Amino acid sequence: MPHKNTFTWNSIITALTKSGFLDEAFKLFNSMPEPDQCSWNSMVSGFAQHDHFEEALEFFVRMHREDFLLNEYSYSSALSACAGLVDMKTGVQIHGSMSKSPYLSDVYMGSALIDMYSKCGNVYDAQKVFNGMSVRNIVSWNSLITCYEQNGPANEALRLFFEMMEFGFEPDEVTLASVVSACATLLAIKEGSQIHTRMIKFEKFKDDLVLGNALVDMYAKCGRIKEARRIFDGMPIKNVVSETSMISGYAKATSVKAARLMFMKMTEKNVVSWNALIAGYAQNGENEEALELFCRLKRESIWPTHYTFGNVLNACANLANLQLGKQAHTHVLKHGIRHAGMVEEGQRYFYSMTQEHGLVPSKDHYTCMVDLLGRAGCVREAKKFIESMPMEADTVLWGSLLASCKVHGNLEMGTHVAEKLLELDPSNSGPYVLLSNMYAELKQWGEVARVRTLMRRRGVVKQPGRSWIEINNQVHVFMVKDKTHPQRKEVYKLLNILAAQMKRTRYVLDVGHPESETYQEPMEMDMKII
């Protein structure tokens, strides 16, 4: 090439950055006699496109300092880098700089801003940018729908989807993948099925891998494992995402054997796949298998995540629970593992997070450890553990410890913990009720009366007892003295049968003392619906 002008230099730099040869492009840029706006933009864009976000922002700042005019290409690449780094502080500064330019009203700049705020978890400002856009396209709608799908509330993603169609925009594969994922989060099987039906009408969506993965995940999370399997089997290409969704779906449907089989057949496994099966074991009471699988994960040099340790600590807590019943009891007899042993194992996993894997435990991990110690009856150790935390303990942590104090009859510690809870949330009836019941179990009726008087004086009302059970993907909720359930006659009929059996075995119901929170009026065992 006899003579290189700026256009020639820029063409070569652009080709190099698009191909990922960033070092070569950087050297060429530094050897340019007079780089122009296009040269700088090519470098900023190239670094951002290949996930070298810090370098992209460095070039953007240098470009600004060199008094080159920043245009829509400069801004969009810089915002993409901020999104990649989750650097909202710099993103806000760039947004401020754009406010002084003519590019703020540009539809593509608006979409880039929404994406940046979305990746940084700032739903409020993403919505604010969207509201201020005079012109919107499918990209801007997709950016905001994805924002709500990823950050919540997911029902807003659904609302925007239907609003977008009312404005005459046709959803593309990005829209559909986001809104199907929102349906999975909400367990909105009706809306998800409607969207799936809409997709079937368009041939172009038939073999889309991302949409297939989203549909498998949605049906699996909603408990429709047969539909999930049908879509999975019909996918021409499958990957670790769809296979992991099936593992989670089988685990949710209590088909742990099928989940394990799917896991074993996977040609490529990542830490998410391992986590899904570990969680499936823990959720279905197969805690020993969860811990064994975790050991296998480490042997295969898979790097565990926060989620891995959360499930492992839960499995330890379940095995340490003195009330777990026959399964854990058999495990203890078979393997000679005492509850204290499970505590030690849980502690070892917890401390290995930072010491071996460089992970900073979250509040959820501390809660798991408090639960583990509490279930094993180590309430004093649990209290010391809470006090040693690098963060302020919340009501969930103290509440977990108070429940353990009640189970293990530690009134002294329970009183102290209840006082802590009442300081943090004096309007919550839970601590009052637990403390009152602890006094009642020890027949200290004067203290029971004192706690109940304190509740009345502070205007705290005890929430009615509530329980729920899921049968065939339908959740049934029951409240104390509730007679609104459509199958109440069948429920009370079964209660009558159980009551008769209790009577035959001469079981005496402990109705407590009239001052106890657990007190029930003596009643005939025959419970009839009028």
UniProtKB/TrEMBL annotation:
<dbReference type="InterPro" id="IPR011990">
    <property type="entry name" value="TPR-like_helical_dom_sf"/>
</dbReference>
<dbReference type="GO" id="GO:0009451">
    <property type="term" value="P:RNA modification"/>
</dbReference>
<dbReference type="InterPro" id="IPR046848">
    <property type="entry name" value="E_motif"/>
</dbReference>
<dbReference type="Pfam" id="PF13041">
    <property type="entry name" value="PPR_2"/>
</dbReference>
<feature type="repeat" description="PPR">
    <location>
        <begin position="270"/>
        <end position="304"/>
    </location>
</feature>
<dbReference type="Pfam" id="PF20431">
    <property type="entry name" value="E_motif"/>
</dbReference>
<protein>
    <recommendedName>
        <fullName>Pentatricopeptide repeat-containing protein</fullName>
    </recommendedName>
</protein>
<dbReference type="InterPro" id="IPR002885">
    <property type="entry name" value="PPR_rpt"/>
</dbReference>
<feature type="repeat" description="PPR">
    <location>
        <begin position="208"/>
        <end position="242"/>
    </location>
</feature>
<feature type="repeat" description="PPR">
    <location>
        <begin position="5"/>
        <end position="35"/>
    </location>
</feature>
<dbReference type="InterPro" id="IPR046960">
    <property type="entry name" value="PPR_At4g14850-like_plant"/>
</dbReference>
<feature type="repeat" description="PPR">
    <location>
        <begin position="137"/>
        <end position="171"/>
    </location>
</feature>
<keyword id="KW-0677">Repeat</keyword>
<dbReference type="Pfam" id="PF01535">
    <property type="entry name" value="PPR"/>
</dbReference>
<feature type="repeat" description="PPR">
    <location>
        <begin position="36"/>
        <end position="70"/>
    </location>
</feature>
<dbReference type="GO" id="GO:0003723">
    <property type="term" value="F:RNA binding"/>
</dbReference>
